[in-house]
Structure formats: C-alpha cells, structure tokens
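Quick question, first post here. What does this chain look like in 3D?
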Amino acid sequence: MEMNREKLCASKADVSSDSAYHCSTCHDDEEWSNTSRGRAKSRSLSASPALGSTKEFRRTRSLHGPCPVTTFGPKACMLQNPKTIMHIQDPASQRLTWNKPPKSVLVIKKIRDASLLQPFKELCVYLTEENNMIVYVEKKVLEDPAIANDDNFGPVKKKFCTFREDYDDISNQIDFIICLGGDGTLLYASSLFQGSVPPVMAFHLGSLGFLTPFNFENFQSQVTQVIEGNAALVLRSRLKVKVVKEHREKMTVQNGIEENGVVSTNIEKEMGKQVMQYQVLNEVVVDRGPSSYLSNVDVFLDGHLITTVQGDGVIVSTPTGSTAYAAAAGASMIHPNVPAIMITPICPHSLSFRPIVVPAGVELKIMLSPDARNTAWVSFDGRKRQEICHGDSISITTSCYPLPSICFRDPVSDWFESLAECLHWNVRKKQNNFAVEEEEF
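> Answer (accepted):
Ran it through. Tokens below.
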C-alpha cells in the first residue's frame, strides 16, 4: 500500500503546473500547487515562447537539474515552506512578448561621448518618425551643445519627453529601454527603476561591452524584432539593499552637564534611524575608504555571524556582477541564470579567506565590528557612496525585480561570447600535436 502511494506521488509530480496535487503519504489531504514549471505573470514579459515559434525554441530537456523528490524513504519527507518559492527556468524558454504593443521607449545615451551623437540621432529619428513612438530622454542629454545647436534635429527633439534623475518618476511610463554606450549605461538604467524594470536592449558603443550584446550597424531590424516581441531574455537578478543609519545630532552641552544635571560623556544623541533602499545590479562594495587601517566588518547570514572581514573590504555581488569587480578580486564567474549571491573579500588579511557563493534569497547583514578602528564606506554599483559608522547596518538579499536584458541570440551563447570577446577567457596559444612520422617501407 505504501509503495502504491509513492508511485502515485511520483506520477503526479509530472503533471503540468496549472494543476494541483497532493501526497497522502506525507501530507494528509494537504494540497499545494506544483510550481516546478510555473510561469510568473508580469506586465509585459512572458517566460513562454512567442506565438508561432514554439517548434523553434522549445527544448527537449532542461539545462537545469531535475526537480528533486521531496520524500525520503517510506516515512520521511520535506516540510513544505509556505514562503514564496523561486522558480528556475530553462534559459532557452525565456522569451519576450507584449500584452499590448509598446508605445514608449527610454533612450539612454552615454554622456560626454561625441561618437554617440550620430547613432543617437539616427535611433531617435527611426523611433519617432518610422515607429511613431514616444521617446523619453534625460534632460541633460539634450543640453549637449552638439544636440542643442543642431537645427536639423530640432523637429525630432520637440517630440521628446524629458526627465531628471532623482526628481521625476518615469517607472510606470516606459515600455522598454534602449541603451547606447557601455556596461555603465545598463547599470544606470537599472538605477532608474527601483521596482519593476522594462525590457532593456543594450547596444555596444562603449569600452568593454560585456552586458551590451547588440551592434548598431543593423539597429533598424533588431529594434523591429523587439517591438514585435521576437527576442530572447535573460533575467539578471538584482540585490535589494537596505541601509539603516543611526541618526545622530550634535547638541550643545555646557560644562559637560545636561539639563537634568547628569554628566554627559557623549555629545551625540540618537534621534531615530534613517533608512535608505537601493536596487543593485552588479555589486555592493564595503571598503575601508580613505583610512589606512584594515576594514573590520562583521558579516551575518540569516541572523548568524559567519565571519569578520579584515582587509580592504568585501564585495557582495549578483551573478551579473561576478564578471565585474568580483572577478578582479578572484571570484568565479557565474552565469546570470544561476540564483546565487557571491561574497568576495578584497585583499583579505588571511590566506584562507576564499570567495564563497550562497543561495539567492538568504539575507546578509554587514555591520562594523565593535572593535573596528575606523568607519567603512559603501557604494552601490559604483554610485551613492556613503560612510558607515558604528551602529549602522547594510541588509542585502535577492530582489524580486530582476532586470530583463534582451539577448542577441540566447542567454547561454551571449554569455560565452562575451567571455571570449571581452575578457578573452581561456585564450592561449594551442599546444602543438606530435608530428606523425612517415612509416618506412
């Protein structure tokens, strides 16, 4: 009887995600949804292949491992977790589709780069005149003299909608994003959206271009494919960061005595806490700043102290950030589809402190050690740099708002091509084979 019930559970594990199933052996009449192949609903993205392209993009097997069986032997089983479960999809099944035709596009151009002026103008003319789209551009981009003084570009420029960073909220007005520049433009686009991020199409017009797979030569056909919903996606996970600072205000104390007559030894009075939140695409870097002393910070994982970092600092990065600062600090490079968080020390004062990878979804907290000689400094994707003092904390976990990056081919091919082209991964002169001596007759 027990064996028949186990077979029943195994057979029901293969049912589609739209159905519900229950295991009477492990859960007495408890019912839950099979989420191993679930599809997350979103405003403008879909994990399913585009219509009419099922045969072309469907895989016969997944690139990921099989869903593990959660019954162990005749009586043991996994306790069901009521919290949200992270779904890991086959990268080849991640396709872009639109619920409605896109009407607005945000164009981000690398500033102070004269070589991008002509591509920027050509793209904007194509979007406004050929596709009749509403183009959003940052106000400081149009203040460039080469654009402001171009009379031929004037009629197109009048159709633009402008915004200013940190002043105008455009998060609910953009259907998709086009970046012209290097990897920094993609990081900047991520910083503009602290919630859901529209699909991002990045053209390689900068220095490195690891995150920018498209060339600009054939931009018309490539943009048209995206507008039609014929494109692959890679969901680049981001970090949700919360910085809690002790709000201190210096108060005037006469002769070291407060109003109640108690002797004061600390003239800084805690007046509450200041909380700031960020969405980070690459990494959070905690370093020693201008101090000559070692950085001394405690790292907690889900409330437990796991280590104290003594060195120049520590990097907490996403898989996307694993090819950035973390790679320079000796970490492994991880594909963006792998759900993980990386912890990489910067010049640690310990030969045994190696970079580690922890599961996505855990909560990390970084604080100054009580015996730290100096403060620390933190930055988020190289921006918003600020000082961290005693009592302040940095909480980091995986964000539920990834950045959907449009692929040139597919997530796997694009990533390995970037490794080869940008980082020259495993490039070396090949070893010669042995010469085959001709047989003597």
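DSSP finds ten helices and 24 strands in the chain.
Residues 117-130 form the longest helix (14 residues).
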